């Protein structure tokens, strides 16, 4: 039997259906906790605060300002608020809490008392965090984008559907997803390795802030570097 | 060293003896068939840094209700955590029905554990707590709902099931954890202090439930401080002190092995004065005391078999009519006092 | 009729003064903080800038040393010991104290909440205000030792070396140092306590504190950019603090403009600081209770 055939047989023998069900069970519990707990209100604030400002801007400055100017403002908000602060701190909160939260609330053992592979549990938890962060920040970015161009009426619609607008939106959303995956996996790993993941998180924040002024080879070791490439 | 709780008993005298016994004993060999229906611990030790959890424990637990008794810090919870793989032994091997606790995805299909921690995931209701656990087992929605309801019914928690656990009383939380442990129909049930916080009615119901499960052939391992309840429900007991197994087996057999404490036997008969004078003449009888109502005598003897033989002879010879003959300290409480009580004044 | 023997005797000995009893909490708070060796190490390291400043002052006033160094080469320019010097030193020390408090400050209340110790403490003759005061004093003492105490030492040292009534002509700076430091102590202390009172996990409280000081400026900048205003700076407490300090240390308007520090009027910076302290006190008042309401 060739190596490939053996691998195929091994893969076919795995209880994929059971694992899928177990991941779904972990996901359901975590999504409820992440979206509906009062503790998570601040993440909503982080994700939707710019939407409020842009809505105010749409109301107050409805007869002034240019689309070009607003595009630059939106780019600034995305790069400096969402990418460097909102998604960073949001993912820090969501992903470090996935396991550390269970440890703090002394409820992790309930997962360990179920016939779940540790890898399946980890995957389920990570996907739960990812769905939460992508949904909240993706919606935040989408709503910010929509509110920014909606006030321009037909010109805004034209910019989105016939101009570069749609590509710009997709790029923002793509970078948001990548940022959630990048920061999420880093923070999940830190929360499993360190009892106090905030200290390494501060170092990550410092690193992400100062790498742009470092040589390009060093810049490649930061998440922001790759996100900028995508942007 | 012990082979199994069902067939033999090990009781040792002082700590030095106990330790030397344990050290010198070699771990028993277990056949595959034996492994399949027993919880087996072979030379298991667990150290938390320099602190001893349990030391060189050898046990083979058969089906039925097994009471785990010992003072605080004696290693009961450590032993239970080892059985369920929540912690791994520093040395030795654990096997539960032939499954190693290092394989949780197999183990927990057959094991239910009601841990001591009084904590729950935030915001859950009684029902969702059990339902979510069952979904983690891989059950579909319909089965999970059915088994959740069944478990809730068994512990008498159907009515408050949709309320949040955070608002439950201590007894209700205890029962909901018990329901979570039994919901997936395990064959091994490990219960750490399951009677804590329960009111007398709920205790009686739980005891009944444990006994029923034990009779159905489940392995029910229960730790408790309430000795008369352990006595009532257990088919066998394990006595622990300072990380060591002090005694194990059926309580009557354990008591017989405690030679340094004379056995107490209560006899109610037609002429207790005569009986007292006759038995006191024997060497193995340490004390013969008339009881307060004057209708019986309490005898303390170093050789219970010899005493029963003598009693038969006296009954025939002196034409005594016997009302009751019963061992007075043949229970967990007395055995606990004799073996552990002198070391730990409080439980 | 029942006869009861009264053999129990309650404690009738002396107790500590009611007024200063809360200091017990402060004492325990300190011992908790300095249990951590890395924290103690970081605390000691926070005095390095003080030693450097000390050396700088000595260098500025020692003609011999300067001459010695000039002999070997052109020599460095002597630092001017003036209001900028003290403002910069206080700024550095404040940042160091901020890092220390963010690291360990939130454990002061969070650990009591996580271990359900609050009902035990408040079940003693200690009021909620005294509890907060006791905990706040831990932060206040720690930040004081890092900020205004060394700054005043430098001030008097420089005054002594300068002579000719330097202290009297710069006496106003004494008030500036104290006021600026205590304002900083109030902000950092109250925000740390409020964060730790709302989150049982001290690590999360540290993260919240960081987020408060870093996301606020980001959000403020977003407001400024989107709405074309400067009022977004009101959400940036660090900006408000800098603005007030610039005023307190009498930095000339032209310099402040160069530093981009006059985006909002001074009174609004005070409002921002007062708002932060007020919000923190409000949160502490809401959270610190001897009982916990369980929503069942």
Order of helices and strands of chain B: EHHEEEHEHEHHHEHEHEEHEHEEHEH
CATH-wise, what's the superfamily of the largest domain in chain B?
P-loop containing nucleotide triphosphate hydrolases
Q: Assembly type of the shown chains?
A: heterotrimer
- Biggest interface: chains and residue counts? A-C, 34 and 22 residues
Pick out the low-confidence regions of chain A: none
The number of domains of chain A: 1
- What proportion strand of chain A? under 5%
Care to count the β-strands of chain A?
A: 0
Q: SS-based structural class of chain A?
A: mainly alpha
How many separate domains of chain B?
A: 2
Could you give the count of β-strands of chain B?
Answer: 14
Order of helices and strands of chain A: HHHHHHHHHHH
Strand content of chain B: 15-25%
Q: For the record, what CATH class of the largest domain in chain B applies? A: Alpha Beta
Q: Into which percent range does the helicity of residues of chain A fall?
A: over 70%
What's the CATH architecture of the largest domain in chain B? 3-Layer(aba) Sandwich
Radius of gyration based on Cα positions of chain A: 21 Å
Distance between the termini of chain B: 27 Å
Flag low-confidence runs of chain B: 1-27
Main beta-sheet annotation of chain B: 7 strands, mixed
Outline the structure in words.
The complex is a heterotrimer of chains A (231), B (347) and C (296). Chain A is mostly helical. Chain A contains 11 helices and no strands. Chain A has helices at 3-13, 16-36, 41-60, 67-104, 108-112, 118-150, 153-161, 165-193, 198-210, 216-219, 223-230. The mean pLDDT of chain A is 86. Chain B has 2 domains: 10-256, Rossmann fold (3-Layer(aba) Sandwich); 262-328, Alpha-Beta Plaits (2-Layer Sandwich), CATH 3.30.70. Chain B has helices at 15-24, 32-36, 76-83, 104-110, 126-136, 141-154, 170-182, 200-215, 227-233, 251-257, 272-280, 304-318, 332-341; strands at 10-11, 39-48, 51-61, 64-69, 91-96, 111-114, 188-192, 219-223, 236-241, 244-249, 263-269, 285-290, 296-301, 322-327. Chain B has a 7-stranded mixed beta sheet with strand order 1-10-9-4-8-7-6, sandwiched between helices. Chain B has a 4-stranded antiparallel beta sheet with strand order 12-13-11-14, covered by helices on one side. In chain B, strands 3-2-5 form a 3-stranded antiparallel beta sheet, with helices on one face. In chain B, a hairpin with a 2-residue loop joins strand 9 and strand 10. In chain B, helix 5 (126-136) crosses helix 6 (141-154), helix 5 packs parallel to helix 7 and helix 6 packs across helix 7 (170-182). The radius of gyration of chain B is 23 Å and the shape is elongated. With 296 residues, chain C is an all-alpha fold. Chain C has one domain (23-60, 77-287). In chain C, helix 5 packs across helix 8 (128-146) and helix 6 (107-114) packs parallel to helix 11 (171-198). The longest helix of chain C has 28 residues, at 171-198. Chains in contact: A-B, A-C, B-C. Chain A binds chain B through residues 18, 21-22, 24-26, 28-29, 32-33, 36-37, 102, 105-107, 109-118, and chain B through 84-86, 104-109, 112-113, 115, 117, 119-123, 132-133, 135-140, 180.
